[in-house]
Amino acid sequence: MPMTPRAGLEVDDSLAAFIETEVLPDLDLDTDRFWSGAADVFARFAPENRRLLAIRDDLQARIDAWHAERRGRPYDVPAAASFLREIGYLADEPAPFVIGTRNVDAEVATLAGPQLVVPGLNARFVLNAANARWGSLYDALYGTDALGDLPAAGDYNPERGARVVARAKAFLDQAVPLAEGSWADFDDPSNGIAMRDPGQYVGRSEKSRLFRHNGLHIEVVFDPAHPIGRTDPAGISDVILEAALSTIVDLEDSVAAVDAADKTAAYRNWLGLMKGDLAETFTKGGERLTRTLAPDRTFTASDGSTVVLPGRSLLFVRNVGHLMTTPAVRLPDGSEAPEGILDAIVTSLIACHDLKRQGRFTNSRTGSIYIVKPKMHGPKECAFTDALFDAVEDLLALPRHTIKVGVMDEERRTSANLAACIHAVRDRIVFINTGFLDRTGDEIHTAMQAGPVVRKGDIKSSDWIAAYEARNVAIGLQCGLSGKAQIGKGMWAAPDRMAEMLDQKAAHPKTGANTAWVPSPTAATLHALHYHQTDVFALRDAIAARPVPGLEALLTPPLASGRNWSELEIAEELDNNAQGLLGYVVRWIDQGVGCSKVPDIHDIGLMEDRATLRISSQHMTNWLLHGVCTPEQVDAALLRMAAKVDAQNAADPLYRSMAPDPANSLAFQAARALVFDGVSQPNGYTEPLLHAFRRRAKGEA
Ligand SMILES: CC(=O)SCCNC(=O)CCNC(=O)[C@H](O)C(C)(C)COP(=O)(O)OP(=O)(O)OC[C@H]1O[C@@H](n2cnc3c(N)ncnc32)[C@H](O)[C@@H]1OP(=O)(O)O
Ligand SMILES: O=CC(=O)O
Ligand SMILES: [Mg+2]
């Protein structure tokens, strides 16, 4: 890649051109001053970044040795806790405190609703996600299995339509009941709509009436000329829900960004969002479509005043963690720059377009930049992020704490020191959430030498995970996040299983969490129903009154008590992991797709990203290390599943088969390395191998 010198750095030409011609011009920032400031940030923070990574390795090496010495004995949690304290893995608890974050948008601070995550490299999806603030309940119920079955292919089915309408009206009866009777019988909107609580009425537009319940808006559309409205006694053609209050544009685990071209493409999408001019043209159903950002929505209140509501989700950007470096920028010593530092600088710089109100729309009405920081291990790494964001604010002449941070509680050292982690970013924190997928991968890797772990499906019901979830909310409330920041729950990783999601994710708001992740706009619309069923903020006092669960269960790894698996169970477990792993990795390496839906062994399409890959690869590594299976069994499973994954992708013209020549398939070799070299991967992360193989694949292409 041609590089260009800038203030002692070597910057990839395409990235430098992007920053200098597309980002900087409207920002009143001098190009030379920007680059010398950026070089200074790298000079100050890169050495500390490296030091923090060395601490991770050192702690893991000590934990490995401690576990190896005690292997085969019952796990002694008090001894483990004192050992972890002795080596500095467990930090001192801070004195009681409350966070001081200010200027936080209501979507984050005072409202409760779904949070959508979207791979930042896919402009079509990114636009869809930003617009997922509002979603059709009729479409979400009709087009998914939410009602218990899927629609048949072909034309609109009126019988299914009637079930959808009945379900939606039952929801209206629960959330915004009429003064008398049911919405199902309502037939005349012309004289106004008498509500049981008239305060729920917000306003009207030409065709709709807008209501509010538990802080979320519900729009009932009246259109007797519409094919659905025509068959409705009141002419109701749809119920539109306020759905994804916030969206995370992901530059991390759901993208494959391994070089300057990838990074620049992702940054360009973020710029399009911040300037409001992102557009994507594509063909769908034989039609050529151009998708752009949705405008705000305007209604007229009873007193004639205008009510303007955001048309788009409040946007966060997820930077990468502290681990990886990028060839997009080289430091004066020739080494690759830490990617997380580059992300902090560039994504904040781009967000200045929003702060300066130079775009078509406003993202943060309170003048904040929202960055999600994943995969931090413990309070010192959080403090590092805090200091880095201070430095970026100085570089961009932003007031202190303009850059907010969402802390993913997804590494064991963060869960175990959560209060201290929050304390380290106490004036800029806007969320904690349980990224249970990475967290599970880290659990397996941390306990790698202790013994074989239980089957992957059983990890979900182990004690540490319940303690982790409960402690996250309890500590968040104790540190005063309520009203200032989100307490969030993790991803629903089965995008096609909406009935099951409706059943299971109802539990999230009941825990006191005011948001939870969903994989798609449709899932956001359906998950919004849960925040109408439960008033999260009303529950929090009672939840906060409970004692914070101690560390005992959190520090108990999910080790198998015996090795009672049959050969069949072992083969099934290996096949399941191998199928998910290969199905994901093959698209990552060969096509640069960072998030895929991959069928598991029961043919359920699961969302796979780097976090789920970390689990499946580390699980196989763990069983291999402890002799639950042999290398031959692992290879046989990989080969068997390669053929299966090849068959699943047969219709994709860009797909390169693995099974016919696995030795020459970079994807197959990457997948194999993730398992066979899994013990030595830092904290069990998959990025180092994925990046190395993807760069080779790009080189070959
Ligand atoms: C552990 C973690 O880190 S979780 C966070 C990372 N994970 C994510 O971000 C999940 C993002 N989700 C996705 O990428 C997808 O939903 C997948 C890959 C899981 C499943 O995709 P599929 O069901 O195959 O979706 P498919 O490609 O059929 O698209 C269906 C429609 O949904 C939309 N869609 C699907 N997911 C999203 C999304 N997250 N955001 C916006 N739109 C989406 C698409 O735009 C498409 O609509 P369009 O044709 O009008 O553009
Ligand atoms: O990032 C989310 C996770 O579960 O990991
Ligand atoms: Mg994660």
Automatic annotation (TrEMBL):
Domain Malate synthase TIM barrel: 315-545
Malate synthase C-terminal domain residues: 570-650
PANTHER family, sorted: MALATE SYNTHASE G
Binding sites annotated in the UniProt record for glyoxylate: R318, E410, G435, F436, L437, D438
Catalytic reaction(s) noted: glyoxylate + acetyl-CoA + H2O = (S)-malate + CoA + H(+)
Amino acids binding Mg(2+): E410, D438
Residue ranges constituting the Malate synthase N-terminal domain according to the UniProt record: 16-69
Location of Cysteine sulfenic acid (-SOH) modifications: C595
UniProt subcellular location: Cytoplasm
GO cellular component terms listed in the entry, alphabetical order: cytosol
Family, similarity comment: Belongs to the malate synthase family. GlcB subfamily.
Protein name: Malate synthase G
Function field: Involved in the glycolate utilization. Catalyzes the condensation and subsequent hydrolysis of acetyl-coenzyme A (acetyl-CoA) and glyoxylate to form malate and CoA.
Keywords attached to this entry: Acyltransferase, Cytoplasm, Glyoxylate bypass, Magnesium, Metal-binding, Oxidation, Transferase, Tricarboxylic acid cycle
Domain named Malate synthase G alpha-beta insertion: residues: 156-185
Assembly description: Monomer.
InterPro entries in the record: Malate_synth_C_sf (IPR044856), Malate_synth_sf (IPR011076), Malate_synthase_TIM (IPR001465), Malate_synthG (IPR006253), MS_C (IPR048355), MS_N (IPR048356), MS_N_TIM-barrel_dom (IPR046363), MSG_insertion (IPR048357)
Cofactor(s) required for function per UniProt: Mg(2+)
GO biological process: glyoxylate catabolic process; glyoxylate cycle; tricarboxylic acid cycle
Associated pathway: Carbohydrate metabolism; glyoxylate cycle; (S)-malate from isocitrate: step 2/2
Alphabetical list of Pfam families matching this protein: MS_C, MS_N, MS_TIM-barrel, MSG_insertion
Active site feature: R318 (proton acceptor), D609 (proton donor)
Single GO molecular function: malate synthase activity
Superkingdom classification of source: Bacteria
Its EC number(s): 2.3.3.9
Annotated acetyl-CoA binding sites: V117, R124, F125, S254, R291, P519
